[in-house]
């Protein structure tokens, strides 16, 4: 997928994993040296050329956390305009099928019940995803 739009503005397409375990959800904190430093996000990353979204997620979770995941239900993709780039996030509900999490890129992680997720300071693009996920859990 192209990573600039018609205006020459950077637009990244990112698959992200809402990983569930025993009623809790995994949140990961970006490191101080990443862009959006210290914001919380879902693990995942940019979809490479020719790569499927689910394939991307499985690759990213091995690279970032050393775990194999099963990719489940998609949530609604959402596009957000940051000052210096645009991002479209493609969220999927996932579970870990093997491995123990080791953080290779993030500075922290936490498992929270869905209703407490907004206590963290999230990357702005994630808010619609969290709200949709919370609505699904309540309904
Ligand atoms: N993985 C992930 N990225 C997110 C989320 N929300 C969000 O705005 N992003 C943005 O989407 C992009 C994901 O790209 P990435 O993880 O592959 O890249 P990066 O920032 O670590 O490194 P890079 O941009 O220097 O290559 C980042 O710019 C990140 O700020 C999220 O929930 N998960």
TrEMBL record:
Transmembrane segments: none annotated. The keyword DNA repair applies. SUPFAM superfamilies: Nudix (SSF55811). The keyword Metal-binding applies. PROSITE patterns: NUDIX, NUDIX_BOX. Gene3D superfamilies: Nucleoside Triphosphate Pyrophosphohydrolase. Keywords: DNA damage, DNA repair, DNA replication, Hydrolase, Magnesium, Metal-binding, Mutator protein. Pfam families: NUDIX. Its EC number is 3.6.1.55. It catalyses: 8-oxo-GTP + H2O = 8-oxo-GMP + diphosphate + H(+); 8-oxo-dGTP + H2O = 8-oxo-dGMP + diphosphate + H(+). This is 8-oxo-dGTP diphosphatase.
């Amino acid at each position: 997928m192209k990573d600039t739009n018609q205006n020459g503005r950077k637009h990244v397409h990112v698959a992200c994993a809402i990983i569930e375990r025993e009623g809790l959800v995994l949140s990961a904190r970006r490191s101080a040296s990443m862009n959006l430093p210290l914001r919380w996000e879902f693990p995942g990353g940019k979809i490479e050329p020719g790569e499927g979204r689910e394939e991307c997620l499985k690759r990213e979770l091995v690279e970032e956390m050393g775990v194999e995941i099963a990719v489940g239900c998609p949530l609604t993709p959402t596009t957000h305009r940051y000052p210096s780039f645009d991002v479209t996030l493609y969220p999927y509900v996932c579970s870990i099928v093997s491995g123990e999490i080791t953080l290779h890129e993030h500075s922290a992680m936490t498992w929270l019940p869905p209703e407490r997720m907004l206590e963290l300071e999230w990357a702005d693009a994630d808010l619609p995803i969290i709200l949709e996920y919370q609505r699904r859990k309540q309904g």
